[in-house]
Amino acid sequence: MAGPYDLEEQERIAELKAWWEDNGKFVIGAIVAAILALAGWKGWQYHKAQSAEDAAAMFEPVDKAVKAKDGKAIEAAAKALMDKYPSSFFASDAALHAAKEHFTAGRTNEAREKLEWVMKNGVRELQGVARLRLAAVLLDEKKHSEALLVLDGNKDEAFTAVTADLKGDIMLSLGRLDEARAAYKLAADKAEPRNPVRQIAEVKLQALGGAPAPAVAGAPQ
């Protein structure tokens, strides 16, 4: 249990929690979207030569429905693709799009089902994305223990930084501030300099008073 904090630190913590309540979904969405774009490009390069032309064609209605923001069409097209070509990259990608639509519409149970499907049946390139999104959904539902359990299953080093950042958010939500600081520091340390996760984690860490002090010129290293 965290010890007592001075008034200034309590104000910083309260401000960070309030900011997260208002913006958390958007931050997670931005991070995961960037990861999904990278994973999607790599997956496309790897799978396009192997995936059936029919599976690729069946993804087109999903893409059109996403652009049109037609939730019913996204669900229908994704389900058809998942049923017919469950092992294809396109089916996993379609399921992620459907999960995002469900979550945005407040249908978290359906969002979880799609994300769990990708984690169990999807292509490896997108399983890590599904894991992060599922943990974010569980955090939104205040199911902290379940969210942590999902994140603990990550074995892909490419997701270490964003996994740590999300763990920090869970610890912050639980009021376990020392553990939140440690998680944000790990995220900042593991993220590449241009990775948006690094900057976001550093901002959160600084807000919790955990940012390292700037180096002093001439001081011993």
Going by CATH, the architecture of the largest domain would be Alpha Horseshoe
What's the number of structural domains?
Answer: 2
Q: In total, how many beta strands?
A: 0
Taking the alpha carbons of the first and last residues, their distance comes to 33 Å
Describe this structure in words.
This protein is mostly helical and 221 residues long. The chain is 76% helix and 0% strand. Helix 2 runs antiparallel to helix 3 (71-84), helix 5 runs antiparallel to helix 6 (124-140) and helix 6 (124-140) packs parallel to helix 8. The two termini are 33 Å apart. 41% of the residues are buried. It is found in: Cell membrane. One of its GO terms (cellular component) is plasma membrane.
Describe the protein's topology.
Elements: H1 7-47, H2 53-68, H3 71-84, H4 89-104, H5 108-121, H6 124-140, H7 144-152, H8 160-174, H9 177-190, H10 196-207
Helix pairs in contact: 1-6, 1-8, 1-10, 2-3, 2-4, 3-4, 4-5, 4-6, 5-6, 6-7, 6-8, 7-8, 8-9, 9-10
Membrane topology: Single-pass type II membrane protein
Protein name: Ancillary SecYEG translocon subunit
InterPro entries: SecYEG/CpoB_TPR, TPR-like_helical_dom_sf, YfgM
